[in-house]
Design brief:
The complex is a heterodimer of chains A (328) and B (268). With 328 residues, chain A is an all-alpha fold. Chain A is built from 15 helices and no strands. In chain A, helix 3 packs parallel to helix 9 and helix 4 runs parallel beside helix 7. Chain B folds into two domains: 123 residues, Nitrogenase molybdenum iron protein domain (Rossmann fold), CATH 3.40.50.1980; 105 residues, Rossmann fold, CATH 3.40.50. Chain B is built from twelve helices and eleven strands. The radius of gyration of chain B is 23 Å and the shape is globular. The chains are: A mainly alpha (328), B alpha/beta (268). The interface between A and B is medium-sized, with 34 and 27 residues. Chain B: InterPro entries: ABC_Transporter_SBP, ABC_transptr_periplasmic_BD. Chain B: It holds the Pfam family Peripla_BP_2.
């Protein structure tokens, strides 16, 4: 187990480094790192500090947040199909962000953007938890997720189409698919503090989620308050997914793939799966973000495209197994 | 059967009407322009009363340097129905006008011309001459052309001023084979897009823009409302790159018209 965490941490560190050294400008590696750390004259420190560094940190943070919330939701709903992107939480966050941007709220106060996205995510996750709590079946969860996703996507498209700005309608793709291109330190400052708070809240549910694996009645007999657990998860998920979506768009499947891959290594214990999924999510998103820059360097290929190519087949596989009655 | 007109008389009436209409084909009397750029050239060249409608965009002062003159004309919104009801004998659209609208107007028997957007000074001259011929105002076109040539000669920078970059929403830049590129060149700037082999308008990653170290940054204008595409222009890396401000393109940069000489002068 300790080996797994060491390996994942090393992988994330290596990918952050690779992300810092990947870009269309093809800069020499040693010069870039020197410029990043020591600064200096000329354009190189600007590229490294203002363009590549926020992108790498944001990739790691958003990936970690999505992996963590995916694992936590799956633990709480006791359903391997739960994932913030697929069941509409990211979509609701995007809707909140788009409303904040298009009404001009985000211009009046910079914090309005992450807060509105947070509110959207909170509505989404609260709806889901109400509709498909620990006792709800997979079908309820997926149907509720489809409905919430569709509503959020339609709302986002509507708001952007009504905008007087000629570029707004093209942004629908960004909000549905996500991208880390040209994010700045300003975005990082907006998103990281609430995400850190949310991560602390979600990680604090580890023991409770362990108890819940015994079944709801057994968990209650052990003194677990399911209502308190539910509120911590709803708030934590909203605090992570909302700001992450506000700056990077809705990126799907990370929270689905990562816990699924890591579960066998941690013996299916949520207390170990949560931090492992955070590291795994960071690694997956960083890898995807490096890949979009290598595959089509001169276009802004959306991150969600790659994560969906990896994640959708797995999702179908999971549905197949659920359908045939086997536990996953 | 009272009121039933013999068919021969209908044909005769039609023939008379056609004959009356024929000279109009040489110099159209009811011209509708439905393209921001042809709107401006048409307003400069048309005889009084000849141009009956311009596009609604021409009345928008953010996009049109002739918004005041355009306010005197009936606006159209590029819809075939409203344009047909204006009974034009010539419609001037553009290559980017929706093909369905152009086809519909032509099917309704209206002459539709689609001049291409002018992407160079030579093309602006061609378009002035073309517009003069379309409106039957060749003499006015020759006058305008002479004034444009003189203005352009006066506006051109005699010296080189350094390197400049054009940067628009969504990270697009324009190379030398575009109108903005031609304006930059005439103002005495070397376009950094050429360093990367960019000739037309295409996306340029911000990293490459920063690495090219332009002396001047010329960005696209912001539109009302918000968009992620335009948010790129507020990126701190751009502020760090050219700390002493930047130039913003305006309505004089959009169309290939004699107003480009004002755009050239604005870069001084």
């Amino acid at each position: 187990m300790r080996g797994l965490f060491a390996a994942l941490s090393l992988l994330v560190a290596a990918l952050v480094l690779a992300s810092l050294l990947t870009g269309p400008a093809g800069l020499p590696a040693m010069d870039s790192l020197r410029a990043l750390i020591l600064g200096g004259e000329g354009p190189l420190p600007i590229v490294m500090r203002e363009i590549r560094l926020p992108r790498a940190i944001l990739g790691a943070a958003v990936g970690a947040g999505l992996g963590l919330t995916g694992a936590a939701l799956q633990g709480y709903l006791r359903n391997p199909l739960a994932e913030p992107g697929l069941i509409g939480i990211s979509g609701m966050a995007a809707l909140g962000a788009v409303i904040a941007i298009q009404t001009g709220l985000s211009l009046m106060a910079a914090l309005a953007l992450p807060l509105a996205a947070l509110a959207g995510a909170a509505v989404g996750v609260a709806l889901l938890v109400a509709l498909a709590g620990p006792r709800g079946g997979s079908v309820t969860l997926i149907l509720a997720g489809v409905a919430i996703s569709a509503l959020a996507g339609a709302g986002t498209s509507l708001v952007l189409n009504l905008s007087p700005n000629p570029y707004a309608a093209n942004e629908i793709v960004f909000w549905l698919m996500g991208s880390l291109a040209d994010r700045s330190m300003l975005h990082l400052g907006l998103a990281l503090p609430p995400m850190a708070l949310g991560a602390a809240l979600v990680l604090s549910t580890r023991r409770a989620l362990d108890a819940l694996t015994l079944g709801e009645a057994a968990a209650q007999a052990l003194g677990l308050s399911t209502a308190a657990l539910r509120w911590r998860l709803v708030a934590g998920t909203a605090l992570i997914v909302g700001p992450a979506t506000a700056v990077a768009g809705a990126i799907g499947f990370v929270g689905l793939v990562v816990p699924h891959v890591l579960r066998p290594f941690v013996g299916s214990r949520p207390s170990a799966l949560l931090p492992a999924s955070a590291l795994g999510g960071a690694a997956l998103l960083l890898a995807a973000d490096i890949a979009v820059r290598l595959i089509v360097p001169d276009r802004d290929l959306k991150l969600g495209v790659l994560t969906a190519i990896v994640g959708a087949p797995l999702f179908l596989h999971l549905i197949w197994k659920t359908r045939s009655g086997g536990r996953v | 059967m009272r009121g039933c007109v013999p068919r021969s008389r209908v044909i005769l009436a039609a023939a008379v009407w056609l004959a009356a209409a024929l000279p109009a084909a040489a110099a159209p009397q009811r011209v509708v322009s439905m393209n921001l750029c042809s709107d401006q050239l048409a307003m400069m060249l048309a005889a009084p009363g000849q141009l009956i409608s311009v596009s609604s965009l021409a009345q928008d002062p953010r996009m049109s340097p002739m918004a005041e003159q355009a306010a005197a004309h009936t606006p159209n919104h590029g819809r075939a129905e409203e344009i047909y009801l204006m009974r034009p004998d010539l419609v001037i659209a553009g290559t980017y006008t929706p093909a369905a609208t152009v086809a519909m107007l032509r099917r309704l028997g209206i002459r539709v011309e689609t001049p291409p957007p002018a992407e160079s000074f030579a093309a602006i001259r061609t378009e002035i001459t073309r517009m003069g011929a379309l409106l039957g105002r060749e003499a006015a076109a020759r006058d305008l052309l002479a004034r444009f040539d003189a203005d352009l000669d006066a506006a051109r920078s005699p010296s080189r001023r350094g390197r400049a970059a054009l940067y628009y929403a969504n990270g697009f830049t324009s190379g030398p084979e575009t109108l903005a590129g031609a304006i930059l060149e005439a103002a005495g700037f070397d376009n950094i897009a050429a360093d990367y082999g960019i000739a037309t308008t295409t996306a340029l990653p911000m990293e490459l823009l920063v690495m090219a170290r332009p002396d001047r940054l010329i960005t696209g204008a912001k539109w009302p409302g918000q968009s992620q595409g335009e948010a790129i222009l507020d990126h701190p890396a751009l502020a760090a790159l050219t700390p002493d401000g930047r130039h913003v393109t305006d309505r004089d940069w959009i169309c290939g018209t004699p107003f480009v000489t004002r755009a050239i002068r604005s870069l001084e």
